[in-house]
Amino acid sequence: MIALIVPNLTNPMFPYWSHEILEVAAAEGFEVLVVATDDDPARLEAAARTLVNRNIDGAIVLASHREDATALLTLREERIPFTFLSRRSEYVSADFVGIDDYTASRQLAQHVVSHQPQRPATVVGPRFSTASAQREKGMNDALSNARLHVPTERRIATDLSRAGGHRAARHLMELPERPDAILCGSDEISLGVMEALAEDGIEAGRDMIVTGFDGLRHTTSPLIGLTTVIQPLKEMGSAAAHQLLHRLRSGTYDEHRTVIFPHTLHIGRTCGCPRTTTHFTRKDT
């Protein structure tokens, strides 16, 4: 049996990855125990101890905290292999599957800059996530290079949920100077942002630039038309599962492997321009 440790099951990203991992594991004769931590380090640590007590064979971790390695060290001390998916620890090395979050967010922000906003804002997930931290850095570096200053009150970290995006947008709309572009670190956050804007009669793409990140199927549909970064979710989930199962079957503890998948910019209508698609190449190290 392997474990799948996720932050929550409300953001569609995590159930989607869970489905892919369950499919691969079942085909290889493994059962999967899904554990949701609500991004709480204490719950993550308790989950790690429980997995050790249940003699779990290995784990795929989507809920790591970049500066808190306690739970991961618990698994490592018991020689339980684990693979990071999407986010990782800065202090504990392991196999990793993801995309280049920094480059993807920087490229998306450069596209936003082409629309000449004057007061951009950024809304990302929790900064203890390496993915969220890199996405925020990429956005802000691109904006800074364009001489667009983003003050602290317009740099927000929130929950990876619609509710988190809604709260962030309400804060931004109450500022003396409202932003004219909101760059979001996840599609779910962007949906919450757009819902809050709609409550004020503000339409994304027409009155306000809004972008997302993840490329969920419903957000890139013509119904919503979100401008976002698309991650190859199916391929990433499958690769993480195969990587862990390879470790289990080979019994090796050799050098950890990082697989970086290509991302795609999906240009919808929420940035206010015609739709195009741009591809970027894969890195595999």
TrEMBL record:
Coiled coil: none annotated. It comes from the Bacteria. One of its GO terms (molecular function) is DNA-binding transcription factor activity. Residues 2-260 form the Periplasmic binding protein/LacI sugar binding domain. Keywords: DNA-binding, Transcription, Transcription regulation. Pfam families: Peripla_BP_1. PANTHER family: HTH-TYPE TRANSCRIPTIONAL REGULATOR GALS, LACI-RELATED TRANSCRIPTIONAL REPRESSOR. This is Transcriptional regulator, LacI family.
